[in-house]
From TrEMBL, chain A:
Membrane topology category: Peripheral membrane protein
Protein name in the entry: ABC transporter ATP-binding protein
InterPro entries (alphabetical): AAA+_ATPase, ABC_Ni/Peptide_Import, ABC_transporter-like_ATP-bd, ABC_transporter-like_CS, P-loop_NTPase
Domain of life: Bacteria
The organism of origin for this protein: Xaviernesmea oryzae
One Pfam family hit: ABC_tran
Automatic annotation (TrEMBL), chain B:
Domain of life per record: Bacteria
GO cellular component: plasma membrane
Keyword Ion transport: no
Domain ABC transmembrane type-1: from-to ranges: 80-270
CDD domains to which the protein is assigned, alphabetical: TM_PBP2
Protein name: ABC transporter permease
Keyword Aminoacyl-tRNA synthetase: no
Gene Ontology BP annotations: transmembrane transport
Compartment(s) where it occurs, according to its Swiss-Prot or TrEMBL record: Cell membrane
Record-annotated membrane-spanning stretches: 20-41, 82-108, 115-136, 142-160, 247-270
Entry keywords, A to Z: Cell membrane, Membrane, Transmembrane, Transmembrane helix, Transport
Family: Belongs to the binding-protein-dependent transport system permease family.
Amino acid sequence: MSALVLDIDRLSITSGARRLVEEISLRVAPGERVGLIGESGSGKSLTALASVGLLAEGLVPSGSIRLGGHQVVGAADSALAKLRGEVAAMVFQEPLTALDPLMPIGRQLAEVVRRHARRNRHSMDRRSVERAVLDLVRQVSLPHPDRLVRSFPHEISGGQRQRVAIAMALACEPQLLIADEPTTALDVTTQAEILTLLRDLVTARNMALLFISHDLPVVAGIAERVIVMRQGAIVEEGTVSQVFAKPAHAYTKSLMAAARSFDDALEIPR
Amino acid sequence: MSDLVSLPATTRTRGPLPRALLVGLFIVGLQLVIALMTLVWTPYDPSALAGQRLEAPSLIHLAGTDRLGRDLFTLIMIGARIALTVGCGAILIGGLIGVTIGLAAAFAARTLDDVFAAGLDILIAFPTLLIAMLIVASSDGASLWTATLAIGVANSAIVARLTRILGKRVLALDYITAARISGSSWLSIVFRHVLPNIWPTLMVNLALQFGLAVIAEASLSYLGLGTPPPNASWGRLLQEAQATVQTAPLGAIAPGLALVALVIGINLLADGLRDLSDPARRSA
Ligand SMILES: Nc1ncnc2c1ncn2[C@@H]1O[C@H](COP(=O)(O)OP(=O)(O)OP(=O)(O)O)[C@@H](O)[C@H]1O
Ligand SMILES: [Mg+2]
């Protein structure tokens, strides 16, 4: 049995005759922060969803995915349901659809807290659930926790909503947090704040992080190791400094050139 | 701007109730009171000949009399009871069957979902009339209940199709995926997230079905597949007044107005309730 949190071995994902992901292998050790980079449509989200056994219907995985030591490919949904909340949690790209619009934020958080407690077979009374919720809100540095928990999602900003989504993920106390472009929909300042928050939180809890992005500098700031995907395959892999100092693959070079010229464009007017 | 700074300035205070809700409540409430009253009291015996034929409105016959000499106001009051029974019954039956099938289809695996979708399309193509004839044929004869059941079953296909589409849309959202990843069961996803989120749209559609059900009952009555006499529904009154609409238009106008008022009232009620259930509108 491996000690890896996530161990993907020659995973392919097909949709009918189309191969969307091609024999990728990927490992995340406990407490490790891994970045997954690639252009749009390269199969990053599919890989992430496959890891928790939530591929859309019609998409067929083959190969092996071990999540917390348990095989995900071909596992029954009931077996996966247990595994998911314990081992992995996920934060998505779109803050607009990350939360249920009809439920006050406190209730959404409370639901996860209660479910997590039930799973670990200790019962929580209402007061301790409330306390746990406020504590989570504080941990993601949201202002006025007691007021925030009574707000509805439409009453807070996109960045605040992402913080709530992160809090919900933390409530599960997972070993692995999968963040699928959690900052792409946010402005630059907010993006930086969320990244710092994510990094601090996972480091403090010794949680592993699989961070998905198409933005090189963002990944460089948060990950220790990066994996570059292109058209469903892994083209390059290494520590951040390795990949950035000496990109081996032409595609990585072009990604870096693009990032650099973008930076330059920002610098010129100053 | 940093997202750390601002929050809604004060805690939310609930605004006034939507006006649509109040007007709808008033109209439907009034008709409900009248309908309940007919169970214990009506101005006249509905089947008795209370006056001359086709009398004009007067203090003793508020809406005049019909072509047999029955008191029209009494008949309209009883019609309210029938309309509310048919409408509520039909949307209850249609809603229960429809939402259940629709949700099952939304959750089902793709092949099963295709079967559901095709089945619903066939059921929708089935005229209510045919369903009503089948139900009457397999029971003791036409009654208010066979008509209600037939209309409800016909409604259920429409409700199911809508529920399926709305449900699928909600199920594709990130917060559902997040809930599944955190280990939510299907049942809790249905009751906590899917139903509350599709309910506002569903409710407005059900209100529409309510009006259509009342009208459908009228057509069924006309064909002898609905409420038997002497309990004249508004639909039957309308059809009976057809022959004399030139000389005594009130016979058609009065039940027509009652019907229109109820349908508008129900729709206003549904609109108001939808606004109330939407936090974004409520706090606006
Ligand atoms: N449900 C699906 N059925 C069929 N093909 C799909 C499905 N979902 C995704 N794909 C295809 O799989 C490929 C990879 O998609 P994926 O969502 O993993 O890309 P991504 O790397 O996350 O891109 P982005 O950066 O835009 O999020 C795309 O070509 C997409 O068209
Ligand atoms: Mg993606």
